[in-house]
Automatic annotation (TrEMBL):
It comes from Bombus terrestris. It catalyses: glycine + acetyl-CoA = (2S)-2-amino-3-oxobutanoate + CoA. Belongs to the class-II pyridoxal-phosphate-dependent aminotransferase family. Residues 65-406 form the Aminotransferase class I/classII large domain. GO terms for molecular function: glycine C-acetyltransferase activity; ligase activity; pyridoxal phosphate binding. The lineage of its organism: Eukaryota, Metazoa, Ecdysozoa, Arthropoda, Hexapoda. GO terms for biological process: L-threonine catabolic process. It comes from the Eukaryota. Its EC number is 2.3.1.29. This is 2-amino-3-ketobutyrate coenzyme A ligase, mitochondrial. The gene is LOC100648636. Keywords: Acyltransferase, Ligase, Pyridoxal phosphate, Transferase.
């Protein structure tokens, strides 16, 4: 018996030695890349928040700051009615389903939310996912075949790019918002069974809007389908907050819309696809992220459902957000800053140098303003910026305080005079 135990011990020791050698080799491969990231000034630090996501937050080190970099556009992440709805759902439906939808993961509130989403967008049906990243991962592979072509804006979100990589369709990229190049790609793919034009509605790093009317015009001319990822538009962009379609008075004209519940619609989690019933039915049968991921937890479903109720018949939050956006953009431009993007709550303050953007953001937190510097590979080289995001929950005093802090640091670092 002792000899058997000794052999077993020796075997386990050899396994640990091999494992340590393997992990050491892994570290040797990774360490130079980590050092290169740090040397380039593009290392991404994670500041830890010890409070709810709201305009005024507290970090674990005790720092208190005004938050100007959340996707909490409507300020509803800590809304009392939304929180109450989530608590009620937690008590009634439990913490989670421990299942995918088609086994035993569908509750009445999931069906109710999908109907609300479809009605909000004026579509026939909708399907929920764990995130919009999953929605984008599940769409293209399910819909498109080797006989099809997908034509994508070159600056589309990473989730669209990754989703397209999963499909077997012919893949083409058109130059960013370049409609001449898009038309050339459409002409080049006339023999395809289906052609799908894919674009972000609002490009998150720049705050710019896709030229949707022209895209729709070209789609009709060449009999192509249209897909819009509207994560940075749903709930707050356009006259009634219906997104990019609403902004351009094109409601109902996009064939497929993917969006998120994790930004303006409560900020918790979740994504969806909304379109014709036939496509949604196909996704329920074939979309891998839907079929193989747990369904959304009941508190998340309930909070998103409550947000849609709050914004469906009122533009109160939307109107406040528009006013705040105009105030910040106009005051920052008057101070001499270059603010990229269209008239959107994403307000990139262009800095250029990656190290300078990081230093600027670090000094802003000392002024009580929480912002983050964005640099390569998140944005192109030499186009580093501080992406400010305005919320309906900000007060005019909050906006003015942030502008004053930008001016102070901007002059200190010679970004403005």
């Amino acid at each position: 018996m002792n000899s058997i135990l000794n052999k077993s011990t020796k075997f386990q020791n050899r396994r640990w030695i091999i494992l340590r050698r393997t992990m050491s080799l892994l570290a040797e491969c990774i360490t130079p890349e980590l050092k290169a990231i740090e040397a380039a000034g593009t290392w991404k630090k994670e500041r830890v928040i010890a409070s709810p996501q709201r305009t005024r937050i507290v970090l674990t080190n005790g720092t208190q700051a005004l938050n100007f970099c959340a996707n909490n556009y409507l300020g509803l992440a800590d809304n009392k009615e939304v929180i109450s709805a989530a608590k009620l759902a937690l008590d009634k439906y439990g913490a989670g389903l421990s299942s995918v939808r088609f086994i035993c993961g569908t509750q009445d509130i999931h069906i109710e939310l999908e109907k609300k989403i479809a009605n909000f967008h004026g579509r026939e049906d909708a399907i929920l996912y764990a995130s919009c990243f999953d929605a984008n991962a599940g769409l293209f592979e399910t819909l498109l075949t080797p006989e099809d072509t997908v034509i994508s804006d070159e600056l589309n979100h990473a989730s669209i790019i990754d989703g397209i990589r999963l499909c077997k369709a012919r893949r083409q990229r058109y130059k960013h918002r370049d409609m001449i190049d898009l038309e050339n790609k459409l002409q080049d793919s006339m023999s395809s069974r289906l052609r799908l034009i894919a674009t972000d509605g609002v490009f998150s790093m720049d705050g710019t809007v896709a030229p949707l009317p022209k895209i729709l015009e070209l789609s009709k001319k060449y009999n192509a389908l249209t897909f819009v990822d509207d994560c940075h538009a749903t709930g707050f962009f356009g006259k009634a907050g219906r997104g990019t379609e609403d902004y351009f008075n094109q409601l109902g004209n996009v064939d497929i819309i993917n969006s998120t519940l994790g930004k303006a619609l409560g900020g918790a989690a979740g994504g969806y696809t909304t379109s014709k019933k036939e496509l949604i039915n196909l996704l329920r049968q074939r979309s891998r992220p839907y079929l193989f991921s747990n369904s959304l937890p009941p508190p998340v479903v309930a909070s998103a459902s409550k947000v849609i109720d709050l914004i469906t018949n009122s533009t109160e939050f939307l109107d406040h957000l528009k006013n705040n956006t105009n105030l910040f953009r106009s005051n920052m431009k008057a101070a001499g800053f270059t603010i990229a993007g269209d008239n959107h709550p994403i307000c990139p303050v262009m800095i250029g140098d990656a190290r300078l953007a990081t230093e600027f953001a670090d000094k802003m937190i000392e002024q009580g303003i929480y912002v983050i510097g964005f640099s390569y590979p998140v944005v192109p080289k030499d186009k580093a910026r501080i992406r400010v995001q305005i919320s309906a929950a900000h007060s005019e005093k909050d906006i003015e305080y942030a502008v004053n802090a930008f001016v102070h640091i901007g002059k200190e670092l010679n970004v403005i005079r």
